[in-house]
Design goal:
Low-confidence stretches of chain A: none
CATH topology of the largest domain in chain A: Dna Topoisomerase Vi A Subunit, Chain: A, domain 2
Strand order of the largest sheet of chain A: 4-3-5-6
Oligomer: homodimer
Keywords (chains A, B): DNA damage, DNA recombination, DNA repair, Metal-binding, Zinc, Zinc-finger
Zinc finger (C4-type) (chains A, B): 56-71
CATH architecture of the largest domain in chain A: 3-Layer(aba) Sandwich
Number of strands of chain A: 6
Largest sheet of chain A: 4 strands, parallel
Number of domains of chain A: 2
Structural class of chain A: alpha/beta
Mean pLDDT of chain A: 91
Radius of gyration of chain A: 21 Å
Largest interface: A-B, 55 and 55 residues
Pfam families (chains A, B): RecR_C, RecR_HhH, RecR_ZnF, Toprim_4
Family (chains A, B): Belongs to the RecR family.
Distance between the termini of chain A: 69 Å
Protein name (chains A, B): Recombination protein RecR
Strand content of chain A: 5-15%
Number of helices of chain A: 8
């Protein structure tokens, strides 16, 4: 017995990740009852973002301009290219401040079963960029999942073909982690990659 | 180093209840990367809802029409009026199917400290409705919180003045609940309101 438009709005909220029927209803009622202004700003910003945001022509990350601010910046080292799966990975690496080079965003990982091959994750664009030979090191930062590892391996082959140095982020015990709660895969990696001190 | 428009979108998502910076970023990236269509539908529906949805002229609930579907329905008993705090309370009572009368939605509760008095929760409209004398019972279903109880008490006084029968939803042990985990307030209410069997 909801009004059809409210029902439609609740359904529309359910596309968001982690939002079930109860949260969707709560969001809809909250905006309509208490924050119409916030709802209206959200609607406008979302419409504009969906309309205007596309991919950076150099690194494939999300941006509303032709090339993103990192690719445009003259303060970033062009020799190091960090390869990540998604724009949120870029933002977490930027927060750490450890990396001063440029990025290449795959927007996914190899997954032949879903029809996602090298071309879908932009590896042809990456190869073109390696041909320019301004890049001297690829730092592969795909996720340590089965698909992420397979993607890393594939990119390693490309790098070898173009005689570019290639590295992978270290695996081991996370800072502040406790051995007791660590999975055995991570622990094995930490043993194998142990460092002399 | 996010693009400004993406940053704006993440900020806009933070108005939603229960959405912090991480979830907001996840929502923004999810829609832009994987579901632009869903994002566009959400933006349109939200803009339309914020624009068109107002309050039912009879019961004050949210609706895009002059009066809501429940107030319009000829199948609902007009003699019983259930008083709730919000439209989500209407929807949960409707789901139970136990009530066949009409509603009156306060859109809040009395809270003098926030400047919310009888007029802000529509009690003047409610009094007008009681003057018509088609209503013979008020069922008060405000939340069993301090403000909800105070509101219930205030409405009870209005009902007495208009010589209308007034009742309050029963309090006690919820179905499927376990005594072990029950708060002592609920347990006391259940003892006081025990029924002969």
């Amino acid at each position: 017995m909801q009004s059809p438009l409210i029902q439609e709005l609740i359904e529309a909220f359910r596309v968001l990740p982690g939002v079930g029927p109860k949260s969707a209803q709560r969001m809809a009622f909250y905006l309509l009852e208490q924050n119409k202004n916030g709802g209206s700003v959200l609607a406008k910003t979302l419409a504009k973002a969906v309309e205007e945001i596309g991919h950076c022509s150099l690194c494939r990350t999300l941006t509303e301009e032709e090339t993103c601010s990192i690719c445009q910046s003259s303060r970033r080292a062009t020799g190091e290219l960090c390869i990540v799966e998604s724009p949120s990975d870029v933002s977490v690496i930027e927060q750490s401040g450890i990396f001063q080079g440029q990025y290449f965003v795959l927007m996914g990982h190899l997954s032949p079963i879903d029809g996602i091959g090298p071309k879908q994750i932009g590896l042809d664009t990456l190869e073109k960029r390696l041909n320019d030979d301004s890049v001297h090191e690829l730092i592969i930062a795909t996720n340590p999942t089965v698909e992420g590892e397979a993607t890393a391996h594939y990119i390693q082959q490309i790098a070898l073909k173009h005689q570019v140095k290639v590295s992978r982020l270290a695996q081991g015990i996370p800072m502040g982690g406790e051995l007791e709660y660590l999975d055995s895969g991570t622990l094995s990696q930490a043993f194998l990659a142990r460092k002399a001190m």
